[in-house]
Specification:
Keywords: Hydrolase, Metal-binding, Metalloprotease, Protease, Zinc
Oligomer: single chain
Number of helices: 14
Cofactor: Zn(2+)
Number of strands: 3
GO molecular function: metal ion binding; metalloendopeptidase activity
Pfam families: Peptidase_M48 (PF01435)
Order of helices and strands: HHHHEEEHHHHHHHHHH
Protein name: M48 family metalloprotease
Largest sheet: 3 strands, mixed
Number of domains: 1
Strand content: 5-15%
Radius of gyration: 19 Å
């Protein structure tokens, strides 16, 4: 093996170890080695290129909600979340779409900034603060580069580079098929979920929405019946995360109270 190739593979392995090292420090603040590795391994432009290909194929497989007002409502709330993100990575292409499937209580993000919310999830909500909590959480998975980290860990850099160039239809089909069949693309680590919770909470507060929307929605889903809905199955450790979010809310110097219930209830019959 040539020295250059050996060095490249060695550096790749070092960066992948860093990718797996994302965590939370003793003060409860998210650390960023995983994001630094993702930034080095997967340029934003490559992630956006992957996402565009995925979105094109996904929207052939999924039934998008036919009501333009519903799509606009979720898109506008999502755009407000994005504007609340401090130090947002440049080049991400956020789009927020509603999938018309009342049986699916779920939401997911794809590479580059595509966020999909199922109508079943919207129907389970009561206020904008609950919807903003979910959107903020999914946006944080993108802005904190969790998707890039998980993709590198699962498939490797070479496969992702080929995917970004449109040269890996097999992997594209695998990812699209997983979403179409199960309502999500990748399961995140516990640290990724905690990080997305913490940063999603920050985004909500910057938007002046009541962060208790996160807590009320998760508690409602937990008590919804003997079978957990998809959102809790794909976003695990709800009890632990609710306690942690409540502790973070308690530390806020001032807690917003806006929940947007009236506006949400006006839209709900259309979901």
């Amino acid at each position: 093996m040539r020295l250059e190739e050996a060095m490249r593979r060695w550096m790749t392995m070092v960066l992948m170890v860093l990718t797996l090292g994302s965590g939370v420090n003793a003060l409860g603040c998210a650390t960023t080695p995983g994001r630094a590795a993702a930034d080095a391994l997967v340029p934003i432009s490559d992630e956006v290129a992957m996402g565009r290909q995925m979105a094109d194929e996904l929207e052939k497989e999924l039934t998008m909600h036919p009501d333009a007002e519903v799509q606009r409502y979720v898109q506008q709330l999502g755009e407000q979340v994005v504007r609340a993100v401090p130090n947002r990575p440049s080049g991400l292409a956020f789009r927020f779409k509603v999938v018309d499937d009342p049986s699916q209580i779920n939401a997911f993000a794809i590479p580059g900034g595509g966020i999909y919310v199922y109508s079943g999830l919207l129907r389970a909500m009561e206020s904008e603060s609950e919807l903003v909590a979910v959107l903020s959480h999914e946006v944080a998975h993108v802005t904190r580069r969790h998707i890039a980290q998980r993709l590198v860990t699962a498939y490797g850099i070479d496969a992702l580079a080929q995917l970004a160039l449109g040269q890996n239809p097999g992997l594209l089909g695998q990812l699209v098929g997983a979403v179409a069949a199960q309502g999500f693309m990748l399961k995140y680590s516990r640290d990724h979920e905690r990080d997305a919770d913490e940063w999603g909470l920050r985004y909500m507060v910057r938007m002046d929405y009541d962060p208790h929307g996160f807590v009320t929605f998760f508690r409602k889903l937990e008590g919804d019946g003997p079978q957990l809905p998809e959102f809790l199955l794909t976003h695990p450790h709800a009890d632990d995360r609710i306690e942690r979010i409540e502790a973070l809310i308690a530390q806020l110097p001032q807690t917003p109270t806006r929940d947007g219930r009236e506006a949400f209830q006006a839209m709900k019959p259309k979901f």
